[in-house]
Queue: 3 jobs
Job 1
Amino acid sequence: MVQIEDTFMHQGMRRKLVAEIKQKGITDERVLEAIGSIPRHLFMDNSFIQYAYIDKAFPIAAKQTISQPYTVAFQTESLQLKKFDKVLEVGTGSGYQAAVLCHMGTTVYTIERIKALYDFARNLLPGLGYRPQFFYGDGYLGLPTYGPFDKIIVTAGASFVPEPLKQQLKIGGILVIPVGKSDYQIMKIITRVTETEYSEEDKGGFVFVPLLTGLSD
Ligand code: SAH
């Protein structure tokens, strides 16, 4: 059972974090509200509490990272979420991004290739009131039997855009994915315009852990 403790101190630290990412250019109030509400410290090891509310990525288990809050906010804002959107997340990691998506009233499917992280997030989120559907699998393939999705977010750096993810977008749907080399990726915002046509926009540089194929164990 996870110890859920969210004190005035944590809430105060979150308000500062929200002010910081707002200052960096995030304007969607619903995104800012989600970041201001979710206890990010519970997604990290207890001993790293002082790092939970600074705007930096941080190591979690299995050599992965919980994304930088600004990056979470940027990707989430780029999805242009509407309440009840059906959203696929590739790369559950700590589950923090999935919590942000749930908080915004969307129906979330999240997939992770490392069993320990899949287990961690699956144990943590329901206690916080967030109930995405968790999948242990290879996100390169998406979730063909659950699609199509209104929105797809990939939270690991891909070397190319996986075709199954494009195929699992509804028409008018948006895919947000960092694409590039292992040490630097460009955030691509891909919209499915018609059955066969997609539009693509590049939105600045980021650094994510790599999107890998297959299961880790
Ligand atoms: N969204 C996460 C970020 C985690 S880092 C959070 O909020 O904490 C990216 C995650 O993507 C890692 O946990 C990594 O194991 C996972 N990942 C990498 N390749 C994957 C794949 N093909 N399918 C599913 N998950 C993958």
Job 2
Amino acid sequence: MKEQLAKIRSEALAAFGQAQSAAELDSLRVQYLGKKGELTAVLKMMGKLSAEERPAMGQLANEVRSALEAAIEAASGKLEAQALEQRLKDEAVDVTIPGREVKLGHKHPMYLALDEIKDIFIGMGFTVLDGPEVELAEYNFDKLNAEEGHPSRDWSDTFYFDEDSRVMLRSQTSPMQVRAMETMELPIRIIAPGRVYRKDEVDATHSPMFHQIEGLVVDKGVTMADLKGTLNAVIKKIYGPASVTRFRPHHFPFTEPSCEVDIQCHKCGGKGCPTCKGEGWIEVLGAGMVHPKVLRNCGIDPDEYSGFAFGMGLERFAMGHFKISDLRLIFENDERFLQQF
Ligand code: DAH
């Protein structure tokens, strides 16, 4: 029995020392010290020994058990330390690596320009409307008095979604006039900025997508004098109190009479220079008195109400405002350009 105990001791200690994991160590513990373990089996035979032999053998067996238990404890401590070390290695964070810079953006220059324009109109009692970019031809054309055959309805100018030319990307913000008149209570005083789409090739002054700001006022007794007074006041706020304007007759299907509004070139004072392309004047918007047919199309009685409307290009305004020479710069989103504003 003595030899048996010594064998168990040396085998067990060697095995414990080589255990690679906590699980392996635990199964070794069961193998030697468990209820059906090897040491337990030897202890069970203790009863068969003589009374003289028993104390010495009992003591030896207890020593072996203590030695095994201590060895398990030590091996387990060693494995835990190894595991911790491995984890620290695996999850190491190099605190010396420089962090990633968080770049804060800011509003696009064109939307900064739009904010200024919105502020001016809001200060004059206008409401700002938002509307759909996918629009019905009925709103973009029919109700605005641009009937079948009008050149702007052509497939070469307009993006349609269907063969019947009923659904389209709006080619102007003017359909917002119709939407406002159909849904709002009178009197109406609105602007509606937003994207519009036309089949134009990209160059320094054209883009298939650009922005317009539509304006509409409908009330009792609105006249051309209100149109001129309002637009002159807005233009003086945008371009400075000394700006000079010119109202030129023009044609739009949805207004009668219609006009285009120019400002005298602020660079040359009207003499003609590269900024105004030698003209002395720069066109800033289209406008007119809302056509009686359009009022009627939207359920408003033209004998009782009248109104004026206007539309301006936002890119052109921003380009003048920030002295941007090429329209493409506005849409290319080159950071070197955008950072300047
Ligand atoms: N929708 C016109 C265009 O895209 C601009 C315009 C002209 C709007 C006169 C108006 C207006 O409201 O009265 O060319």
Job 3
Amino acid sequence: MQPLFSHSSGAGPLAVFVHGFPMDHRLWDQVVAHLGGLKRCLAVDLPGFGASSMDGADSIDETADRLAAVIASLDEPADIVGLSMGGYVQLALVERHPELIRSLVLMDTRSESDSDEGRAGRHALIDRVGESGVEPVADSMAEALPAADAAPWVRRKIRQMARDSSPAAVQAALRAMAERPDRTGILGSIAVPTLVVVGSEDALTPPDGARRMADAIPGSRFVQIDGAGHVPPLERPSEVVGALRDFWTVSA
Ligand code: MLT
């Protein structure tokens, strides 16, 4: 199994950033740029995205195992921040490798598996990528993820990250997300400090679901980022940095 590619900056306790679909480590650029004095920030590329190879990308669980190998190689548990698909990977890590986690930030994500309709939509998209490549996914995600009034460069950046992904990676991630189990049942057993973050305008994983998830995690904190859609690290990076700093200060 090839190691996951990761981009390291800063010094201090280890913080690992896990991107959403169909993006890569660049999702976190503006966030990690302001945290280098506080943490050693490692922004990973999930299998097939950015600079990571496709090897071992068949499921969210396998992806979590590959992330675990990165963290284990650094010999310290990590503060882990994940967005959406990155959150699915975090919850798999909670189940499979809890000893590697110092704290969790679950951002614009959910614990539930896909509905039948959602699963069918993913399979239709897999076929579409097979026929037309990643372009339709890049366009629809750039449209759907941010809030309606997001700056044009936010949509451009999402489109760029999606276009830089291989069709095989996009299809494998869609398949892995469609097949992921419901992990709502483990929320009550999360024993590390946890922050749930959501954009007030997130249409994919809306605030009421994020609030429910926070309520199910013992002692967790909840922060809503006003004006952001599904990608607060791009849409409201300084608010995300503030939320992380506050959380890490009280949870350390
Ligand atoms: C993401 O941002 O990672 C995706 O929206 C997750 C999903 O499609 O479930």
